[in-house]
Amino acid sequence: MAACCSHAGKPAGERGAAILKQPAMTSLQRHSERHRTDRIGWLRAAVLGANDGIVSTASLVLGVAAASSSHSSILVTGVAGLVAGAMSMAAGEYVSVHSRADTEKADLSRERDELQAAPTAELHELTAIYISRGLDQALAAQVAEQLMQHDALGAHAREELGISVELSARPIQAALSSAASFAVGAALPLAVTAAAPGPLLTLSVAGTSLVFLAVLGAVAAQAGGANPVTGAARVTFWGALAMAVTAGVGALFGAPV
């Protein structure tokens, strides 16, 4: 009612113009959206770590159990696998992601130098990128020029190099996520190993580990916006294959593997 009353004293033409402007202004207002791209870094490391923790520790326990080792030896082997695996995951993720971060920094430094040495060429380069994405030449040139004035390095980082804040490499975050998630994942089959009686140890560890993997796959798929059933089936299949192969090797050689 207030909006209608505010236009009551104006001529019909002005009222119509004012009303027509309102949807356009409203359309420019930001609305709340939830995207999952900001989860890619930590989600990948966490899922990879937890999956490796469950699969490697359960496989290790089953392989040692198949070699007819004592319950205490199996448990000690599993604990050693947890510690070694967590440290290995942390070191591997840190080195890998740090290498990516170094590459990103080198590319940004090179791009910064090129912007200083040949700004016109870089403007044309950015314009060509927008033309290839469907903008006409005049509009692409206008967009490129305005973005160059606002944040030239940021524009080229996003459009030319594919580097963004959401997807940038974070070595420490990846290392800690991998180590922690590996330890949590490995603790699950270890807890079953400690609690299960000797005759049922193999079946207990294998069965519960497959359940853990299915839940992990479903949760990870749900967090990433994918089909939970597909994610659970994929993770469970490969986990079951790894455990079966390791148990077979242990039974074949009759020694811890």
The rough form would be described as: elongated
- Number of DSSP strand runs: 0
Compute the average pLDDT: 79
Contiguous uncertain segments of 5+ residues: 1-28
Share in helix: over 70%
Distance between the termini: 78 Å
How many domains?
1
What is the chain-wise order of helices and strands?
A: HHHHHHHHH
Radius of gyration, in angstroms, nearest whole number: 28 Å
Strand content: under 5%
Question: Major β-sheet, in short?
Answer: none
Look at the helices and sheets and give the structural class: mainly alpha
Helix count? 9
Walk me through what this model shows.
The chain is mostly helical and 257 residues long. The chain has one domain (39-253). It has helices at 2-6, 12-28, 40-66, 71-117, 119-132, 137-161, 171-195, 201-224, 228-253. The longest helix has 47 residues, at 71-117. The radius of gyration is 28 Å and the shape is elongated. The termini are far apart. Mean pLDDT is 79; it is low at 1-28.
Tell me briefly what this model is.
The protein is an all-alpha fold.
Keywords:
257 residues; mainly alpha; 82% helix; 0% strand; disordered N terminus
Write the topology of this structure.
Blueprint: H1 2-6, H2 12-28, H3 40-66, H4 71-117, H5 119-132, H6 137-161, H7 171-195, H8 201-224, H9 228-253
Helix pairs in contact: 3-4, 3-7, 3-8, 3-9, 4-5, 4-6, 4-7, 5-6, 7-8, 8-9
